[in-house]
Amino acid sequence: MSCPKCQGRSRRRWLLPAVVLAAVLLVTVAHAGEPAPLGLTDAVRLALARQPVLDAQAAAVDAAAATAVAAGQWPDPKLRVGLASLPLDTYSFTQEAMTQFTVAVSQTVPVAGKARLAGARGERASELARAQLEAVRRRVARDAALAWLAAWWPEASLDLVRRIGREWDGQLAWADVAYQTDKLAQDEVVAMRGQAQVNGDRQDDLARQARRGRAELARWLGEATAAPLADPADVPALPAPAELAARLDDHPELAALAGAVAVARAEVDLARAAYKPDLTFDVGYGLRGAERPDLISFGVAMDLPVFTANRQDRRLAAAEARVTQAEQTLADRRLGLRAELDAALADWQAAHRRIARFDQEILPLASQRVTSALNAYASDRATFGRVAEARRAELEARLGRLGQRVALARAQVQIDYLTQEVQP
């Protein structure tokens, strides 16, 4: 004859494997027919293809290039048409010999290479716009990748917690039957229900985070956000820190700020050239009629920069100050990027070490603890509370490992932003 206690032990031995098998089948059916998963690299590529900010910056590049050409040209000539020396008593064109119909053309000629300097300033501005476009591309790639990770992490965590939750639900159903037949103590049933509620609350919170992550990812991907997210690929080994630091010199933000320095220096050249006045040449033709000879006139006009203290001097001082500002901004950003790289490397190395610790120590120990608790529970040497605590610790360990995987990927995204060129 079989005793009730032995029947309880037998139930405990076959219950957990059956629940795990059912959970695997449910997951397989749930994922059938879904669209192809969207990986991190594909998400970044989609984001780069659909961002209005990139189109806006590309238009700024075109505008700067067109402006550079226009800036290097001479001013347009001026046409002046008039009537000179007309008597007011008769308004007769033939009464006075000096009455004439005049046509004049004038042309201002920039001196001291001002047109060339203005064109050079425009070219520097065009180069600045192109560097800014590349800087925007890198930011879009980084931000889209971080948004993808922010959406993937809660979904992956939720999937893990739900798998554990399905196991809890199966165990809870068995516990209700076991309690009604006096095979399980009430406090064990209460412990199981409490753990199930905690698990359900965590699922709700992770589901909220997943919805929020998807909403933020939609800003970058649009309708493509509806696709399931693939697991991120393993991160590659890092080059030497010195090599990564050397790549910072090619960062587009530094190129853009160097372009701003070049523009400021070109403006200094223009401010110095402003001390030399431009020349305006004028040629006119006077038509007098009535067999009187027509007249022709020539003239040259120029500004007289005699009050330079409050005009040219101030403009030159302002231009030189803007050069200093641009140079110091460049130096400050270079320091900032180096600090960001050092921080990202520290995060990468820490996450890499912690993942190794999870794989080699924490997860195996957590699994052994669960196995030990289940064996002790099956042989009536432990309460279900011990099993619940072991399960909870294993879940936390798995979630911790998942969190470090995301931390490693985030650090890699930041390192790529600082040191890798975005592929078109």
Give the strand content. Answer: 5-15%
Radius of gyration: 39 Å
The CA-CA distance between the termini, in Å, is 76 Å
Q: Give the H and E element order.
A: HHHEEHHHHEEHH
Written description of the protein model:
The chain has 424 residues and is α+β, with helices and mostly antiparallel strands. It has one domain: Outer membrane efflux proteins (OEP) (Up-down Bundle). Helix content is 69%, strand content 8%. The protein has helices at 4-30, 40-49, 52-71, 114-180, 186-221, 241-247, 252-273, 312-378, 384-419, and strands at residues 78-84, 100-109, 279-287, 295-302. A hairpin with a 7-residue loop joins strand 3 (279-287) and strand 4. Helix 3 packs antiparallel against helix 4 (114-180), helix 4 (114-180) packs antiparallel against helix 7 (252-273) and helix 8 (312-378) runs antiparallel to helix 9 (384-419). The two termini are 76 Å apart.
